[in-house]
Structure to design on (262 residues):
């Protein structure tokens, strides 16, 4: 594929437009990638035409993480107030979902992933400070980072959605190296907290046939099961990772050693 073909097939842009709901439907594990930044008015989560469903979560589950100012997610009769990097999970069967901003001068920015669901798990809210986390990497290799797990086997329960985020320390730029693939799952990387001129070089492709995408703030990359997913930025940054597919095992991966990459 050419650079343009790669970008058209795997790069998700323009997720946050004021008072607009953005939804991308991927045939890879039927994942939906979305974003909404309500400024002046609350925004309803509408069903996507591809779903042929009466409402969005009729046969689906969704994980939502706020990467902007304070915001509110309403799910039927429940109300959740999300600060930056807080998460809420909504299970199958929730009919009415609405997003709004607490302060219009600092709008919320809700990033979400959705996957098909076979049963209903309870709605759950989790603040970043309470998420399971671990520190990895070294400053010497420019990959010192903290991983926060929100939706996973030991955390928020789901049918097939796994979701969390990684924050790189100052001076660290590499993520997920050595790389790996997920033969049984699709993963999506959403990059955030990049200053306007900064970029991430996102490495993808089969381990012996790698390619790359230049990715800006608030852009996402769909990583198919056959592709590695790693990145190196021109500054430190954060990214939200999310997976769906055959299982919920966070450690289910096929290593791609650095010495074997081409």
């Amino acid at each position: 594929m050419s650079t343009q073909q790669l970008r058209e097939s795997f790069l998700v842009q323009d997720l946050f437009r004021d008072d607009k709901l953005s939804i991308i439907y991927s045939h890879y594990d039927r994942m939906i990638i979305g974003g909404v930044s309500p400024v002046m008015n609350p925004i309803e989560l509408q069903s996507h035409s591809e779903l042929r469903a009466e409402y969005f979560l009729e046969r689906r589950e969704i994980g939502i993480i706020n990467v902007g100012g304070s915001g509110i997610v309403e799910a039927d009769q429940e109300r959740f107030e999300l600060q930056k990097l807080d998460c809420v999970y909504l299970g199958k069967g929730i009919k009415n979902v609405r997003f709004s901003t607490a302060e219009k001068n600092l709008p919320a920015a809700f990033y979400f992933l959705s996957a098909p669901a076979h049963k209903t798990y309870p709605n759950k809210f989790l603040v970043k400070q309470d998420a399971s986390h671990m520190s990895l990497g070294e400053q010497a290799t420019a990959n010192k980072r903290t991983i926060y797990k929100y939706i996973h086997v030991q955390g928020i329960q789901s049918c097939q959605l796994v979701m969390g985020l990684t924050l790189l320390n100052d001076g660290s730029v590499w993520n997920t190296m050595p790389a790996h693939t997920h033969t049984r799952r699709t993963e999506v990387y959403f990059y955030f907290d990049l200053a306007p001129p900064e970029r991430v070089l996102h490495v993808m492709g089969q381990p012996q046939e790698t390619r790359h995408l230049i990715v800006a703030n608030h852009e996402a990359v769909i990583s198919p099961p056959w592709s590695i997913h790693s990145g190196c930025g021109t500054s430190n940054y954060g990214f939200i990772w999310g997976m769906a597919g055959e299982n919920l095992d966070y450690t289910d991966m096929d290593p791609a050693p650095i010495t074997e990459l081409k």
The chain is about 5% helix and 45% strand. The chain has a mean pLDDT of 97.
